C-alpha cells in the first residue's frame, strides 16, 4: 500500500477533497477529553542487568553514542525515562552474575559489614550516568535476592528466604535490618556517583526458584521487611526513595501481593505494586490504591526478529505496541519496563529478550524499540485522560496530558488497510498549537508525517498505513 502523508500535507482541507485516494480511505476520529483524568505516568524503561550494560561500555565510537541515543534520546530514539538496575547479590562475577557490595557477611546480623564497591556495578553505573546526561530522572534499583549469608539456604541462588521474615528463622539470627542497611548503602553509593536512585525493590520473581539469584517471598513476608526498610530509608534521609514490590512472575501473583501487603498494613509504605507478565498477562487494572508498574516482560522463545509485523508473533514490534498500549491504557499502569535493553547473540539463545542486539562491535535494532519510541511523547508526570475513537476495533487510542500542557495521543491501526486518523481535543481550535505526528510500521521508525488541519481548525489528521502505530503531540 502506498503511503500518502506527504501528499496529504499539501491539502489544506483534505476532508472536503473530492475524488482523491485519501477520501476513499476509511477515516477514524479520536476525541480527547482532557477533563476526565486517570492514572499518573512515571515512564517507560528497560534493564541492562546481568552484565549486559558492559556490551555498551565496550562498544567503540561512534556506535556507542548511537546505541545510547537509541535508548535515551527523546527526539531521535526510544526516549526511555526509567532505568531498572539489578542490585547484585552474588559473591563474584562468574557466568553473567551480578556481584554484591557485600560478598562476605559479618558473622552476626549486628556485626559491621565490609562493603566492597568496584565503581562499576556490572556496567550499570556507567549506563546510568549516561542516562543522567540525557535527562533521565527515574532510577529503579532492584535486588533479585539478599546476599546468601542473610538467607535460610545460605546462597543467593536457588530460592530460600530472608532470615527473620515470618516463617523463616535462622540460627544466625534476624537479618532484616542488615538487609535494609545494605540496600541503603547501595543507594548511597549511586547517589555519590551522580545517579539518584528514586525507587528500590528487594525481591524479583519471589514465586519462582531459579539456579541464579532468587529469593522466595509471599506478600505477607514482604510486608515484614517493608516495615523495616521504610523507616531505615527515612532515617538515612532517603524519604523520597519509593519502595516497589514484589516483581511477581505474572499479574495474578501481583494481585495476591497487593492483597497480602494491604492486609499486613504495609501498603501505605510502598510506591508501586510491580509485576511481570510471564505467567499471566495484564487483563485490567490491579485492585490496589498503590500505583502499578509492569517491570519486566519479553518474548523468551522466538528467534531474534527485527520485524514490525511478520505474523503477529510475540517478538513483533506491532505486538509490543499493543502490549504496552494495553498496560498503559487498559490497565492504568504508571510504568512499562521491558526486560533487557541490550544483549549479545551468544547468551540467551539468540532470542527476543532484548530491544537491541549487540554482536561484538555491531548492533541491530528491533522494531520493539520503535514501539516504545512511539510512547516517548508521553513524558514522566503525564496524566492519562479520556480518548475514544469512532471504532475501537479499527483504531485503539489513548491520550495523556504532559506536565508542560502538551497533549500526547497514541493510536494503533488494527486494520490491514490505511486509514485517515484525526485527533480532536473536544471543541478546541488547534490554531495556536503545534501539531506533530509520527508513525512506525514495517518501513518507518517514528517517521514524522505532516498533519493536515481541518477547515474549522479543530481536527488534525494524517494517513496511517495498516497495522501501524501513530503518535500525535499537540503542543
Ligand atoms: C538527540 O539526537 C539528535 C539527532 O541526532 C541530536 O541532535 C541531539 O543532540 C540528541 N540529544 C541528546 C540529548 O544527545
Ligand atoms: C538529604 O537529602 C537532600 C536531597 O534529597 C539533600 O539536599 C540534603 O543535603 C541531605 N541531608 C543530609 C543531612 O544528608
Ligand atoms: C482505570 O481507568 C479506568 C478507565 O480506563 C477507570 O474507570 C478507573 O477508575 C481507573 N482505575 C484506577 C484505579 O485508576
From TrEMBL:
The keyword NADP does not apply. Residues 381-472 form the Glycosyl hydrolase family 30 beta sandwich domain. It comes from the Eukaryota. Keywords: Hydrolase, Signal. One of its GO terms (cellular component) is membrane. The keyword Signal applies. GO terms for molecular function: glucosylceramidase activity. Residues 1-17 form the signal peptide. GO terms for biological process: glucosylceramide catabolic process. Residues 42-374 form the Glycosyl hydrolase family 59 catalytic domain. It holds the Pfam family Glyco_hydro_59. PANTHER family: GLUCOSYLCERAMIDASE (PTHR11069), LYSOSOMAL ACID GLUCOSYLCERAMIDASE (PTHR11069:SF23). Belongs to the glycosyl hydrolase 30 family. This is Glycoside hydrolase family 30 protein. It comes from Periconia macrospinosa.
